[in-house]
Specification:
Layout lengths: L1 E9 L7 E7 L2 E2 L1 E6 L2 E2 L11 E4 L9 E9 L5 H8 L8 E2 L3 E7 L2 E9 L4 E9 L6 E8 L4 E9 L7 E7 L14 E9 L2 E10 L4 E4 L3 E4 L2 E3 L1 E5 L13 H13 L4 E3 L7 H10 L2 E9 L5 H15 L5 E8 L11 H4 L6 E2 L4 E2 L2 E2 L6 H8 L4 E2 L4 E3 L10 H10 L5 E5 L6 E3 L5 E3 L18 H9 L3 E3 L11 E6 L10 E8 L9 E9 L8 E5 L11 E8 L2 E9 L15 E5 L2 E6 L2 E6 L5 E6 L2 E4 L26 E4 L6 E4 L7
Helix pairs in contact: 2-3, 6-7
Length: 661
């Protein structure tokens, strides 16, 4: 299919003499752009990457202009068509990310690529557009709030101009970026011609150093880190891959709420807002060149790779590049990443042993143990498939303990974050998951928490607490371990509550006593103790609840039951009278009435003192009949379940609500 978009736009009069570009964040797939009837540039092939055209000579400044964009859903490039549109995910077509105009002086800063190390050393590769009279570039680091940090640093532009210059300096003791403390800075760059500022550009970045130490681990700022990660597509049921800025931030918050610290943006570059959110809120990112089991050809692949790296190079959240997925790599492109990335981030092939890391997908547990005992770091870029492995929480504790116990364990990435169903407008909004083919996530299509959500959050909580033994020797001490990489538990708040569980007529548990404590001074990757105060009568509680939080994030909640106390017998309300009321059978005893369906035996309603509780689908009354021999047989599915007891009625039972009595 082919779609044509037409739009009229006016170029401001004060853009006269400036360079004008039209920028497309992405379009699926082959895209032709015309301005005022003339081609703006060659056909762009590739559905997930930014591209732009210089339209300075095509636009009429101060007047209306005609824009015509033709998008072919399928690509005429056979390799790109296979790499991007024959993947195991929904395939759409058309323009689905923003389009905008950029204007800059004829001599200007075209691009900057920053390498800011944990030592405070900073170097920026500055690409200049049409430099002829410009003489120097000045850089100034600023805090997120805009305050100057350190002295400005300057580099001269050679006489006659140069397309690329390097600006470098050093900042003393910068605050470092990590997922736990995502500190960001600005680099302001000013291009001068003599004493006149010609052009300014601002880029956001973070100081940090990432290393893959082969056989030892992943190291950020000198500290070993492990990836608690998940895969994520750009997706919404109503809009497909068109994701708003608010939704991108929503996804990052949802991932962090699971106590995760990492994301793989399978299987293509995400919207820019997602990376900005990862920078600000704190997530480690694996960013990926598209290619699902089939790779791009070298010529077009090089264009797409350059676009990917140049767009995303300054995001501190990005630690690793990946060249395609599950065989979808062109090995001739591996070295191209370093051409545009002064940080020299590692490059991986997801599911292959490459770049010093074994990224095998969906290893079975015995296979995982074997790999962890080998010489290479192990980090499955997909594992514990949400559909085929019984849910993401099933087995995660075993896998994670094995990864933590091995010096080769580097973490991993669950498949997948969200159920990806399309809201069918032709079927009243029904969410179509294409049977079981669409990705199966930890949350539903609109972020609904599924069963594994709580399991994953608990296993990956940075605060781990050993279950206490409430014997005579319990003195309020709890054993804690700190699974943070950079943060002391002293930054965590812990709320304790002694609970009495809700009774049959209560909605909520009763808090007998409670309080809050600062976490103990336990260093990252270390263990320690928390001393709880023991209020008078704590032994009369049913359970102890402990909640850990940091800032506005809840890290985990634990509830431990105390040994059962002797129970007081319930008060009898009397012998019930049986009242037949049409199709209903009522048992009435004092202020209590139980209503049953006379045909099925289902309990439909309970009432006491005028308070009514309606019920559905059971339980069902089964009249016990005495038997000569109190024998019991195994129940068939859906049939009466027998029980043996001493006394007048040795044989009793109840039935499944799906079967007639």
């Amino acid at each position: 299919d082919t779609g044509t978009y037409r739009h009229r736009f006016t170029v401001p009069a004060d853009w006269q003499g400036r360079s004008v570009r039209i920028v497309f964040e992405a379009a699926m797939t082959d895209t032709t752009v015309k301005v005022n009837g003339k081609p703006a540039g060659p056909i762009h092939q590739g559905g997930f990457n930014r591209f732009s055209h210089d339209i300075t000579k095509l636009v009429k400044v101060g007047e209306e202009n005609d824009l015509e964009v033709t998008v072919s859903e399928a690509s005429a490039n056979a390799a790109t068509e296979l790499a991007e549109r024959h993947g195991d995910y929904w395939v759409f077509g058309g323009i689905y990310r923003p389009v905008w105009l950029e204007a800059a002086p004829a001599e200007s800063i075209a691009h900057v690529a920053i390498d800011a190390k944990a030592t405070g050393e900073l170097a920026a590769q500055v690409t200049l557009r049409a430099p002829r009279t410009v003489t120097r570039v000045v850089g100034q680091v600023r805090t997120k709030e805009g305050a100057e940090v350190g002295e400005p640093f300057t580099t001269a532009v050679p006489a006659g101009g140069a397309g690329l210059v390097r600006v470098a300096g050093r900042i003393k003791q910068p605050r470092l970026w990590s997922a736990e403390s995502p500190t960001l800075y600005w680099l302001d760059l000013t291009l001068f011609a003599g004493d006149m500022a010609v052009h300014e550009m601002r880029e956001r970045f973070g100081f940090r150093t990432f290393e893959v130490r082969e056989g030892q681990g992943l190291y950020l700022n000198g500290q070993r880190v492990m990836m608690k990660g998940v895969n994520r597509h750009s997706f919404r049921p109503e809009t497909g891959r068109a994701v708003s800025r608010a939704q991108a931030y929503e996804d990052v918050r949802a991932i962090r709420a699971l106590n995760m610290n990492a994301i793989r943006v399978a299987h293509y570059a995400p919207e820019t807002a997602f990376l900005e959110a990862a920078d600000e809120l704190g997530l480690y990112v694996i960013n990926e060149l598209s290619g699902w089991q089939k790779g791009h050809d070298t010529e077009n692949g090089r264009k797409l790779l350059r676009s990917l790296v140049e767009r995303d190079v300054n995001h501190p959240s990005i630690l690793i590049w990946t060249n395609g997925n599950e065989g979808g790599w062109n090995r001739e492109l591996d070295r191209d990443f370093a051409l545009y990335d002064p940080q020299g981030r590692p490059v991986l092939h997801p599911w292959e042993q490459f770049g010093g890391i074994d990224t095998k997908h969906y290893p079975r547990y015995p296979d995982l143990l074997k790999r962890l005992a080998g010489p290479m770091l192990v980090m499955p870029t997909e594992f514990l498939h949400g559909l085929f492995d019984g849910g993401h929480g099933s087995g995660l504790d075993d896998y994670w303990r094995a990864m933590k116990a091995s010096p080769r364990g580097a973490g991993g990435f669950l498949w997948n974050l969200a159920d990806e169903g399309v809201a069918r407008t032709d079927q009243g909004g029904r969410i179509d998951l294409f049977g079981t083919y669409a990705p199966d996530g930890i949350v539903g299509p609109h972020g609904e928490k599924e069963a594994s959500w709580h399991t994953v959050k608990a296993i990956w909580s940075p605060v781990q607490v050993e279950a206490p033994q409430f014997g005579k020797g319990f003195d309020g001490r709890l054993k804690l371990s700190n699974d943070y990489d950079f943060t002391s538990l002293a930054e965590v708040r812990l709320r304790w509550e002694w609970l009495r569980f809700a009774g049959p007529q209560q909605q909520d548990d009763t808090v007998l006593s409670s309080g809050e404590l600062d976490g103990p001074k336990v260093a990252p990757h270390a263990g320690g103790e928390l001393k709880l105060p023991l209020p008078a009568g704590w032994q009369q509680a049913d359970a102890l609840r402990l909640t850990a939080s940091k800032g506005g994030d809840q890290l985990g909640t634990w509830v431990w039951a105390l040994p059962e106390r002797p129970q007081r017998p319930g008060a009898r309300v009397g012998t019930p009278n049986v009242v037949k009321d049409g199709a209903s059978l009522k048992l009435v005893a004092g202020a209590v009435t139980a209503s049953l369906d006379a045909a099925t035996g289902l309990l439909t309603e309970l009432a006491r003192d005028g308070r009514v509780q309606a019920l559905s689908n059971g339980p069902r009354l089964v009249v016990a009949r005495p038997t000569a021999a109190g024998r019991s047989t195994a129940p068939a599915p859906g049939h009466r379940v027998p029980a043996r007891s001493a006394g007048r009625w040795p044989h009793q039972g109840w039935r499944s609500p799906r079967q007639p009595p």
